[in-house]
User: What shape does this take?
Amino acid sequence: MLEVGCGKGELARALADAGWDVLAIDPAAPDGPIFRRLKLEDVDEPESFDAVVAARSLHHVTDLEAALDRIRTLLRPGGVLVLDEFAWDRLEGSTADWFHGQQRALAAAGRLPDAPATLEECCRDWADEHVGLHGYESMRAALDERFSERFFEWLPYLYRYLDGVVGETLERTLIEADAIQATGFRYVGVR
Assistant: This one.
């Protein structure tokens, strides 16, 4: 299994402890036998992988199409791509309004350092923070060109931006009630 963008290596270590043969890559990967400080385009393994896992990393790559082509090449036929991703561009309407309200409430309670004064400022700051990152539609189109979808689900994600003070359960409840839209997603595709 190949993990792309392993960060501090928690997932890679858990997969290795569960018995998987893991190679975890990241330009800032930790030390250890399963880790390599590499970018995806620099992976040069002689054998194909059964699975590639990427958790919140593909929206950051510069050339999404080249990255997905490389992943497809590294996967054996029938191999699986598992993504846990972020659709930053879905922060709009009632979702943006809820997020801004949560920021303001947490800032007023001293749980966040500050919050944008207006919804417009919140949306502008959000867009500025995510400029250059791939949005959902571009990621989905690139995935659909290269992989056959086996599983897809929308997930809570904004609670991470609220320092864990606002829980995943609350966000999930609001998504399920169609009060806000999800900004996280899980995708499984097959080569």
Observations:
- The chain has a mean pLDDT of 94.
- The longest strand covers residues 75-86.
